[in-house]
């Protein structure tokens, strides 16, 4: 339990976090695509607004160019320049009362995009000015424009070519109604009908008016913010950006916003993300981008062209996207909850499975331990009798390691030759589908023998024998016990010699052996004389002692193959294989003499008593055609009886 709980917690944690990661990683690209689509929409809208602004800008500039050209080609204007001497010192054109002057004044007054119109001769002298009440620029000494950029620029141009003074930081200011307004000067040369250069006409474009019309045209979306910067990063509008609201004309946008500027200045067209806004921009070069214009070529000086024009619009945030896509949110939530539910189910079920697996493993280990350490042997054999499995107990009996038996050992080879037949029969039964059992002797690696009984059955699949499963019980102890019990059953507990039952069982063997070898078999019966007296005089224990001593003495006089048995209380019998009756008589005599001369010392009432014992004997032969010892015993007893009757301590042979 100590190790499974953290495992469960870990699984639950995984169940909660993995779905989140999976769902997010699956749906993020979809939402991201949504976001991209929105951004594309914003980009398209910005492009559209920029297009409108660009048209307004180009229109304003083009109209100015066209007006400048139209004025330059007015015959009266050319005549004015040809027919009059240049205006001298103090003789300003604003006081010219001619019809031309009236016309031009009216034109300027009714077109607010222009702040002034100036007619300049070839020497730079101002010939005419409209409106008349416009003060001459303070930097123009004596109304001479000879040193101005527009005069110098336009003086070299061909007909219909235009000079555009560089706006931006070079914006020129002039006073109008007491305030300094920025202007952009547009100048074009004036030629007469003989194509002689006669002077220059200057038209000043009120930049404030232009930017105003830009704002009006571009603020289709009230959230749109306009950007117009010259090539040096000079700010060209009256209002600032969303991020830099304090910017005003001529300010250094490049310095104030270096990051966007580095991108703006290096690319012709594109978009940039500025925090929560998108800036769409493109370069505008009014020198080349003109249409519906009568102008030839357009020139300018300085390095402030082209301008960069742009518009910023707010970009959608993730929050706003999700707010709009509530169905997606619901779907996400549902998906996540379902995934977590599945995850939790998985965590619990796999935890349960883990526990079951652990239990199964534990049980398997227990079964394996029981199999290996069982007090009996287990083994499995394939159809060829090769060991495919054997438990530790049986391996230990045989003295082999696992790798020496599995797939290596033919089980029949460890069975003693005399029990191999029994094994073969039982194994054949098992292979045939019957249970088989055989008592065999196993030959161990160390040369020992082990008596076992093997009980086996076969494992079959689709009616085919696959392998046998055998239980091997060790019979050694049982055999020993049996032998012990048998020995006990056949032995006289007092004297340790065999009893009557054993004598009778062995007699059959000895009779048949004698028959086979054609050798005689004799029998002696012995009965201690007056044994009752010993009991009576010295006690039963003393009698027992006498019986034991006598047995020892008699045993010492016999051969290995002779069989001494106690057949009654104080009566003994000796079966003598390969012994003729005459030899048996001699043996009986030797025993009788030994007993007679052998004194037995016993303890009686604290004293040592020496007893003289004698015994009587009956001797007979065993007929080899008899199957039991019954008749021989009877004959011997007859002789014994006779010996008793005739005085004891004697031998009587009965034939
Ligand atoms: N101490 C002892 N006495 C036994 C045992 N078995 C039998 N006896 C005794 O042996 C005696 C046999 O006596 P009897 O059959 O009358 O014969 P006997 O006294 O030996 O006299 P004879 O055979 O005629 O010489 C009995 O008193 C039995 O009680 C025994 O295992 N131990």
Please explain how this structure is put together.
It contains 18 helices and 24 strands. With 655 residues, it is of the alpha+beta class. It starts with a helix and ends with a strand. The chain is rod-shaped. A hairpin with a 5-residue loop joins strand 12 (377-381) and strand 13. The strands form five sheets. Strands 1, 2, 3, 4, 5, 6 and 10 form a seven-stranded mixed β-sheet that branches. Strands 17-19-20-18-23-24 form a six-stranded mixed β-sheet, sandwiched between helices. Strands 13-12-16-15-14 form a five-stranded antiparallel β-sheet. It folds into three domains: 45-314, PAS domain (Beta-Lactamase); 377-476, 2-Layer Sandwich (Beta-Lactamase); 491-654, Alpha-Beta Plaits (2-Layer Sandwich), CATH 3.30.70. It binds guanosine-5'-triphosphate. It catalyses: 2 GTP = 3',3'-c-di-GMP + 2 diphosphate.
Which segments are poorly predicted (pLDDT under 50) over 5 or more consecutive residues? 85-96
What's the number of domains?
3
**Fourth CATH level, the homologous superfamily of the largest domain:** PAS domain
Q: How would a crystallographer describe the biggest sheet?
A: 7 strands, mixed
Number of helices: 18
Known CATH architecture of the largest domain: 2-Layer Sandwich
Radius of gyration, CA atoms, in whole angstroms: 70 Å
Number of strands: 24
Distinct ligand kinds: guanosine-5'-triphosphate
Classify the beta-strand content into a percent band: 15-25%
State the CATH class of the largest domain.
Answer: Alpha Beta
Structural class: alpha+beta
Helix content: 40-55%
> How would you describe the shape?
rod-shaped
Q: Whole-number average pLDDT?
A: 87
CATH topology label of the largest domain: Beta-Lactamase
Distance between the termini: 91 Å
């Amino acid at each position: 339990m100590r190790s499974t709980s953290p495992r469960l917690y870990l699984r639950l944690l995984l169940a909660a976090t993995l779905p989140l990661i999976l769902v997010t990683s699956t749906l993020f690209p979809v939402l991201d695509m949504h976001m991209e689509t929105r951004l594309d929409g914003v980009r398209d809208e910005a492009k559209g607004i920029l297009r409108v602004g660009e048209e307004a800008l180009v229109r304003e500039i083009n109209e100015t160019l066209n007006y400048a050209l139209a004025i330059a080609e007015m015959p009266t204007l050319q005549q004015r320049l040809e027919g009059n001497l240049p205006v001298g010192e103090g003789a300003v054109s604003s006081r010219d009362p001619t019809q031309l002057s009236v016309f031009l004044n009216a034109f300027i007054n009714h077109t607010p995009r222009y702040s002034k119109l100036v007619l300049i001769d070839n020497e730079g002298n101002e010939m005419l000015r409209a409106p008349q009440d416009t003060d001459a620029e303070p930097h123009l000494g004596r109304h001479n424009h000879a040193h101005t950029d527009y005069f110098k620029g336009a003086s070299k141009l061909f007909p219909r070519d235009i000079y555009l003074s560089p706006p931006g930081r070079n914006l020129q200011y002039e006073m109008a109604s007491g305030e300094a307004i920025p202007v952009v000067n547009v100048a074009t040369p004036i030629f007469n009908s003989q194509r002689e250069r006669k002077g220059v006409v200057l038209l000043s474009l009120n930049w404030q008016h232009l930017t105003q019309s830009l704002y009006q045209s571009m603020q289709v979306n009230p959230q749109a913010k306009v950007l117009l910067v010259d090539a040096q990063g000079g700010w060209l509008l009256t209002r600032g950006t969303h991020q830099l609201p304090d910017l005003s004309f001529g300010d250094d946008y490049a310095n104030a916003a270096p990051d966007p500027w580095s991108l703006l200045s290096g690319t012709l067209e594109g978009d940039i993300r500025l925090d929560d806004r998108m800036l769409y921009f493109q370069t505008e070069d009014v020198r080349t981008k003109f249409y519906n214009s009568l102008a030839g070529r357009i020139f300018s000086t300085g390095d402030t062209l082209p301008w960069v024009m742009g518009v910023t619009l707010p970009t959608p945030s993730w929050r706003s996207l999700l707010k709009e896509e509530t169905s997606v949110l619901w779907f996400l939530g549902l998906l996540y909850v379902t995934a977590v539910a599945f995850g939790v189910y998985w965590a619990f079920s796999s935890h349960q499975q883990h526990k079951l697996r652990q239990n199964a493993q534990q049980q398997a280990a227990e079964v394996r331990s029981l199999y290996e350490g069982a007090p009996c042997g287990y083994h499995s054999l394939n159809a060829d009798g090769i060991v495919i499995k054997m438990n530790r107990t049986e391996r230990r009996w045989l003295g082999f390691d696992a790798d020496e038996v599995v797939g290596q050992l033919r089980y029949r080879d460890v069975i003693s030759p005399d029990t191999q037949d029994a094994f073969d029969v039982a194994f054949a039964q098992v292979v045939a589908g019957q249970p088989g059992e055989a008592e065999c002797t196993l030959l161990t690696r160390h040369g020992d023998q082990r008596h076992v009984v093997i009980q086996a059955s076969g494992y079959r699949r689709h009616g085919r024998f696959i392998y046998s499963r055998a239980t091997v019980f060790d019979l050694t102890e049982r055999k020993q016990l049996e032998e012990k019990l048998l020995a006990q059953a056949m032995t006289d507990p007092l004297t340790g010699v065999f009893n009557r039952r054993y004598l009778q069982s062995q007699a059959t063997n000895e009779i048949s052996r004698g028959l086979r070898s054609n050798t005689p078999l004799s029998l002696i019966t012995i009965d201690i004389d007056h044994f009752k007296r010993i009991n009576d005089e010295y006690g039963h224990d003393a009698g027992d002692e006498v019986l034991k001593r006598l047995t020892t003495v008699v045993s010492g006089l016999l051969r290995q193959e002779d069989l001494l048995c106690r057949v009654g209380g104080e009566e003994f019998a000796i079966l003598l294989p390969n012994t003729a009756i005459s030899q048996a008589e001699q043996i009986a005599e030797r025993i009788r003499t030994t007993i007679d001369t052998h004194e037995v010392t016993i303890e009686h009432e604290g004293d040592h008593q020496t007893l003289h014992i004698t015994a009587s004997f009956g001797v007979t032969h065993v007929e080899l055609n008899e199957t039991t010892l019954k008749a021989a015993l009877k004959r011997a007893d007859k002789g014994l009886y006779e010996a008793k009757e005739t005085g004891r301590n004697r031998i009587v042979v009965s034939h």
